[in-house]
């Protein structure tokens, strides 16, 4: 017999046995399974998914971005995917293109040899790299995870990368061409905050703010300075604002918030008001944490707060999240956290979730509307997921 | 309080799975989160158990992260990884039908460790001189990248000679 | 027992140091091992405290692994690493003489994380727009390799204007 | 005044103030300190130092070798240094040269891009890389930490690296020239055990052992096979022997030990004897763990043992270490461990320490002579330090 005939005969015998088994109540054999299946993801991502940026401080050459579903009942349902993100990376998800950007650093021999900085471009659906943009000059900033070390402007067409060597500058990338098109020097300033129709602002060491207008070729077409307006010693601005309707809300070490309108043609200094005016001064509530601000679609401002604030307490975990009506500058609610929090984020849907990285490095999920606790995401492979990004 | 914090904070890893050995059987769920996960969506009764648990029947010779916890399933790799064509093989008994199945443990490769649901069980595992039965090897050796992410558990068929 | 094991096993890291903030002052020793270390060889009384503890006076603005736990000392890098010439600066009060000292926090670079004795204190720390006072930056930026291993605490002098 | 004169004047004023202070009982100011100090290590290392090979399974691209002092009272006294060891590396310390060898793997982009395998050569005193030997063919084995994935032979002049693709072979390196000089194909065999005057043996999948004699140019000048002598299903040999006086003691899954004399011109099969003959059969004591064997200078054999052994239990943590007189094949002592152990090692001095990696991934230190517990090394930055190497 030919091998085909053998298989055919075997198949008939197996089929006969199967019928026999079924007749006798013996369950059918499980079939052989395919060996080539790889998952893909729906794009846009469902609104309760989020990215957890794990810096993996003890192994920072192997940091990760975990894509998680805050609605999942257990880790199998929560864990959607992962991309590597090496060596103090910065991450941003495009709202327009089906792409993710990871600005990262590699050495030929992990921590030795030749250094190469790149922006790796990932496909949102396959989480596979589509390409990379090499960043010249070995100057990309290396710091704790920050929302403002990279930024997308011009409707997602340009990507900005903040550099620190310690000389500071901003690299401008054309996303469509995957090409570096300019580098803007920053005179003693830091970070990139999207500003204006197409540009960015940076906070400066002398307490001022500088803004640049950028054209579609990445060239600077306008430059504007808000003269020094805060005192780094007396009441420093956190460099971690929440953005609501074009206005950046910068909390300050002493418990104020400085509004800066970045949505207009030229950045405009707004009102400075107290976050703690209504609280007991003896309790010394202050803003603090790793990433301590958030905002939702309804225009509410969320700030992580701790009591007994003092010089040096500005990275303490928050025991509460205070929720403000940003426009009305009024306190709406104080949410007491189950476990103190280090960083917060809000999903972008109308009835958003409040996501809190707690001091055990797990993620607690609350309903934003009433502060009700929903669940904790833990054991998803994380070390220190210090920064969360709601999906776009 | 700081001390309490430090002690309370456990890192999922290896250690939990190693712990399984101490209770004398890997069929017990290991971690608080794993226990909580028992409420998973119902499985077909002919393939019983929770694939995110180390004790799931197909995992009898697995050594690594379970892809069902990493954005994949028992038989599919997570997004952006590649299923290695080279594998080691286990023979695991399905409690639903009492049959012994040949399980191919394919590693999913091209990203570093998933980190979730580490599981180590060694039924039929043998030392490195018997590689086709050795789970200590990185089986991404057959993929484009040696980077190991997680492991799937694919049924190749029944171990006819053994049922 | 497996469950106990998983919960008992704590990973030293970040988390323990974060915990220090919760007790409202980083002057308290954080970890069991750190407490046990109090029996360290006697320090000169003019430079008091245990340099392997986060609460040691020179550590008032440190953010990283203490080189005194990594094969170095308060002022020397571990074997095989390079001391970065760029630093951030803290002003810490020596409890023995009541003077404020300018401390240079030099990162030791060229190997990845030491992993022992993580410490984060933020007296005088400021955001990234004031880099010379910002401990969130990787200060290996001035060394041959950006790979961060641990941090030393070197006295540059007294803060004359402040004593 | 010239700047020098200013400094001179300032110095005189400071000196005067110092005298004044001293006279008044005010302590002298602490002096400014030097900014350029880097430690070096004594070579040979003190006998109670050891290497802990941390595979860092969750971040295996960033594994490490920690050099620790088992006599240290706290982490500051225990931690002597560290070298990186990436991606399932193998490590060996030269007993003759002031060098360490780490066989490791790198990718251009952590886990993507071009793969390069190298042996990195470190200086024992400075722990700085002296150079590297590129391994051709992307074939170095990638596995759990093992003592027998690399080996030094010929008095430390040749380094062997075991390869698995899954085709198996051994790369031969001239250590002095830092050059690959040969590759020996292995027909279905695995690992490298130093053997003979200058050669190696490997265990094979059919239950045999093959041995090669190597000349100073790395060429094979002799080949010898011990025909199949064990059954992989019925009673597999652990591939992790202890070596005492040229004899390899291979424990078996069923609780025996197989002696093979690797010290002679041709490898010779020795006696197979029971480790568990004197124990209660109902307790089913079996050898097991990650690296489960050790030996000391007095010729004692140490084996990690667990009760309730069965198929699949061979990697269970050991509750006891059984100490045998290797020559007399008799049980001398059973050491009950404070916490179950995964891997063991003995220091090389006459009154050795017994080092045990416990299930919490810490290292427990016992006196080998009486099993007395001394201390635990913890919190030295480790994830999973699964293999220990006493210094040479």
Topology readout:
The complex is a heterotetramer, with 2 copies of chain A (392 residues) and 2 copies of chain B (163 residues).
Chain A: H1 3-24, E1 37-38, E2 49-54, E3 64-69, H2 75-78, E4 79-84, E5 90-93, E6 99-109, E7 112-123, E8 129-135, E9 150-153, E10 158-164, E11 168-174, E12 179-185, E13 189-195, E14 199-204, E15 209-214, E16 220-226, H3 232-235, E17 242-244, E18 247-251, E19 256-261, E20 268-274, E21 286-287, E22 293-295, E23 300-306, E24 318-325, E25 330-346, E26 353-358, E27 363-367, E28 373-377, E29 385-390
Antiparallel strand pairs in A: 2-3, 2-29, 3-4, 5-6, 6-7, 7-8, 9-10, 10-11, 11-12, 13-14, 14-15, 15-16, 17-18, 18-19, 19-20, 21-23, 22-23, 23-24, 24-25, 25-26, 26-27, 27-28
Chain B: H1 2-8, H2 14-22, H3 32-36, E1 63-65, E2 76-77, E3 82-93, E4 100-109, E5 118-120, E6 148-158
Antiparallel strand pairs in B: 1-5, 3-4, 4-6
Walk me through this protein's architecture.
- The complex is a heterotetramer, with two copies of chain A (392 residues) and two copies of chain B (163 residues).
- Chain A is mainly β.
- Chain A has a domain at 235-392: 7 Propeller (Methylamine Dehydrogenase, Chain H).
- Chain A has helices spanning 3-24, 75-78, 232-235, and strands at residues 37-38, 49-54, 64-69, 79-84, 90-93, 99-109, 112-123, 129-135, 150-153, 158-164, 168-174, 179-185, 189-195, 199-204, 209-214, 220-226, 242-244, 247-251, 256-261, 268-274, 286-287, 293-295, 300-306, 318-325, 330-346, 353-358, 363-367, 373-377, 385-390.
- In chain A, strands 21, 22, 23, 24, 25, 26, 27 and 28 form an eight-stranded antiparallel beta sheet that branches. A four-stranded antiparallel beta sheet of chain A has the order 4-3-2-29. Chain A has a four-stranded antiparallel beta sheet with strand order 5-6-7-8, with no helix packed on it.
- The radius of gyration of chain A is 25 Å and the shape is globular.
- By secondary structure, chain B is of the alpha+beta class.
- Chain B has three helices and six strands, in the order H-H-H-E-E-E-E-E-E.
- The chains are: A mainly beta (392), B alpha+beta (163).
- Chains in contact: A-B, A-C, A-D, B-C, B-D, C-D.
- At the A-B interface, strand 1, helix 2 and strand 4 of A face helix 3, strand 2, strand 3, strand 4 and strand 6 of B.
- Strand 2 (76-77) of chain C pairs parallel with strand 1 of chain D, so a sheet runs across the interface.
